[in-house]
Design brief:
The complex is a heterodimer of chains A (401) and B (225).
Chain A lengths: L1 H13 L1 H37 L5 E4 L7 E2 L7 E2 L14 H9 L4 E16 L2 E10 L10 H4 E4 L7 E5 H6 L7 E6 L4 E10 L4 H6 E5 H7 L8 E6 L5 H12 L3 E3 L5 H39 L1 H9 L4 H31 L22 H24 L3 H5 L2
Parallel strand pairs in A: 5-10, 7-9
Antiparallel strand pairs in A: 1-11, 1-12, 2-3, 4-5, 4-8, 4-11, 6-9, 7-10, 8-9
Chain B lengths: L2 E12 L6 E12 L3 E5 L6 H8 L7 E6 L2 E2 L5 H11 E4 L11 H5 L1 H7 L4 H13 L15 H13 L5 E5 L7 H18 L2 E5 L3 H6 L2 E6 L2 E2 L2
Parallel strand pairs in B: 3-8, 3-9, 6-7, 7-8
Antiparallel strand pairs in B: 1-2, 1-4, 4-5, 9-10
Classes of the chains: A alpha+beta (401), B alpha/beta (225).
Chain lengths: 401, 225
């Protein structure tokens, strides 16, 4: 069928202006396809980075042990509890599990933490806070604390505390000033403000305090173990599978971030579906464009098709000539559109540099190969109808035209 | 001389019912190998229809058509296409060349489509045929740049490319001036004499008919002379 390929190529080069117009039309469709892929993919990346980029992808929390029940009269429940004390569940064997979890494929960082509630007091000002005790050196393992610092340092050490911008303002605190932190266990420490962060998330900036793990041990009277292990993955989409693996490996209740994010997943899914529709329409435009152009071409070349048939060209040969034309148009348009799409996406910042207010176009999600492949397939499918119509041309009628 | 083709009781009707037109009405004809015959008759007598059927481009309504021991009435389209490619050449009144191709590319088309590619052997034979047609300087010319007579000579070369046993020519000189017409007929005669190719030439021109060894007259859908 080498000869049919030559004829197809000759037909395309015989009318360069018409072919250029057709290829450009296909290229525009492919460009839209790639642009939409980059936009939808980039948008999903951006939303995920903004919503779950700074949270733990897998979390292991200590399970509260039920209070011991006593034998009670019928219709009543009696249990043992120490008045005035908040009981905190612990992962007592955390030190044993941490190296194992860190060794699981796909795990980027592991952060053992002690978390609890407390009150910050400065003069007459009192604020309720959520306290996170983190190992020094792992401050940015899960939340990019370093990246959000607006004053001071995220580095945690003995006697230091890092607060959000709003909380520091509420307490009229400046770097280097002291503040009293009383835990829910009733233990109080005086800590020095060493850093102020601003994430843009109100609840985080207004009610979160970071201290070192050793300070948290003192505050929550927990000489060993932790209350929570947060795990960050290289690929957050692998969270479900990795959580299952950790659960099987350790027996701990590892929970993926997706467990509490059904609405986000639905929204991303809906966005993805919209993307498929838009890309589908772009492909449909290509198919219709190629089909109509080739239908016109076959109609214009009816006498030639008649001559070919009279000279002994089988119907299959004629079909091949026009399907090859379609494939060539699809290939050229696909490559041109993919090239244009790539060039158009080059000036946009990479996914790591996405910022609010900019168009999150991810050049790596252009689906270039897929766009070219689908375009060629679409163009071939689009050319089948004109090709079959050409093959049915009656040589006697066509030559007589 | 042995018979190359034989048709018996050939009938061709166009349309149906009251609009039916019977163009061939039980036509019988035998053509011998190496013959150069003129097909004569008034317009509408069925000459073109007969050529079309003999060229396997159209099937008759009924009758028998035998060529080179092939029953060409019963044959399927694929078989007929292959038969046409190997054994029958066409020369039309209007050259009917492929406009986007050169003279040589047009000539070698029947061989290239058979082989699936343009072989060096096909190019050599095509070039040789064009030289014989007096077109040595026009081998690689686009057909659009050739004169009417030159185009018709390219068409004759194309018809001969696969060395067919039969060449059907429908008014091959009808669109040419007298000088070009004589040149084309001389070439046809030369091929007939040298290669023994059978020619059936439909014409209204008495001089061309006289140049042929045999004159077949068709009238009202039957051979009358």
């Amino acid at each position: 069928m080498l000869y049919a390929l030559k004829i197809a190529a000759r037909y395309l080069t015989a009318n360069l202006a018409q072919t250029a117009l057709l290829v450009t039309g296909v290229a525009v469709g492919v460009f839209i396809f790639i642009f939409m892929s980059a936009l939808i993919g980039g948008l999903a990346e951006f939303i995920l980075a903004r919503t779950v980029g700074d949270i733990s992808h897998i979390t292991i929390e200590a399970e509260d042990a039920d209070p011991a029940l006593l034998i009670a009269p019928q219709g009543q429940v009696l249990f043992v509890a120490e008045p005035g004390q908040t009981r905190t569940a612990t992962l007592a064997e955390a030190a044993t599990w941490l190296p194992l979890i860190a060794g699981v494929p796909g795990v980027k960082a592991v952060s053992p933490q002690i978390t609890g509630a407390g009150f910050l007091t400065r003069g007459a000002q009192v604020s309720q806070v959520s306290v996170s005790g983190i190992e020094p050196g792992r401050e940015s393992a899960i939340l990019d604390l370093d990246g959000y610092m607006v004053e001071g340092s995220a580095r945690l050490g003995s006697g230091l505390i890092v607060l959000g911008r709003e909380l520091a303002d509420d307490l009229s605190l400046s770097l280097g000033q002291s503040v009293r932190l009383q835990s829910s266990n009733g233990i109080t420490m005086v800590l020095t403000l060493s850093g102020i962060f601003e994430t843009g998330n109100g609840s985080m900036d207004k009610a979160r305090a970071f201290v070192s793990l050793s300070s948290a041990r003192t505050l929550f009277a927990m000489p060993q173990g932790v209350t929570r292990i947060e795990i960050k993955l290289f690929d957050l989409n692998a969270a479900d599978a990795t959580a299952l693996r950790i659960r099987a490996l350790t027996g701990l209740d590892a929970v993926s971030w997706t467990d509490g994010a059904a609405q986000l997943m639905e929204a991303l899914d809906a966005q993805s579906q919209t993307g498929y529709f838009l890309k589908g329409f772009a492909l449909l435009t290509i198919v219709i464009g190629v089909a109509s152009a080739l239908l016109l071409s076959t109609y214009r070349r009816r006498p030639e098709i008649g001559i070919m048939r009279a000279m002994g060209a089988p119907r299959g040969f004629v079909v091949f000539v026009f399907v090859t034309q379609g494939a060539l148009v699809g290939l050229l348009g696909g490559i041109m559109g993919a090239g244009l799409g790539y060039l158009a996406l080059l000036p946009f910042p990479s996914r790591e540099a996405f910022r609010p207010g900019t168009l999150p176009l991810d050049i790596t999600q252009g689906s270039y190969g897929l766009a070219i492949t689908l375009t060629v397939i679409g163009a071939i499918l689009a050319s089948i109808l004109p090709a079959r119509s050409a093959a049915k041309v009656d040589p006697v009628t066509a030559i007589g035209q | 001389m042995s018979a190359l083709l034989e048709v018996n009781d050939l009938v061709k009707t166009f349309g149906t019912g009251e609009a039916a037109t019977r163009v061939l009405r039980g036509l019988d004809l035998t053509l011998n190998t190496g013959e150069m015959a003129a097909l004569l008759g008034p317009s509408g007598s069925g000459k073109s229809t007969l050529l079309t059927i003999l060229g396997t481009l159209m099937k008759p309504t009924s009758g028998r058509y035998q060529m080179l021991d092939h029953d060409l009435i019963a044959a399927e389209d694929r078989e007929l296409t292959e038969f046409r490619n190997r054994h029958i050449g066409f020369v039309f009144q209007f050259h009917n060349l492929l406009p986007d191709f050169t003279a040589l590319e047009n000539v070698i088309f029947p061989t290239a489509v058979r082989d699936g590619r343009e072989t060096p052997a096909a190019r050599a034979r095509g070039a040789d045929l064009l030289v014989r047609m007096g077109l040595a300087e026009r081998i690689h010319f686009p057909t659009a740049k050739l004169s009417g007579g030159q185009k018709q000579r390219v068409a004759v070369a194309r018809a001969l490319m696969n060395s067919p046993e039969l060449v059907l020519a429908d008014e091959p000189t009808g669109n040419l001036d007298r000088a070009s017409a004589l040149q084309v007929m001389e070439l046809i005669g030369q091929i007939n004499r040298e290669e023994g190719t059978t020619f059936l030439i439909s014409t209204h021109d008495d001089k061309i008919a006289a140049a042929c060894q045999r004159q077949i007259v068709v009238s009202d859908g039957v051979v009358t002379g």
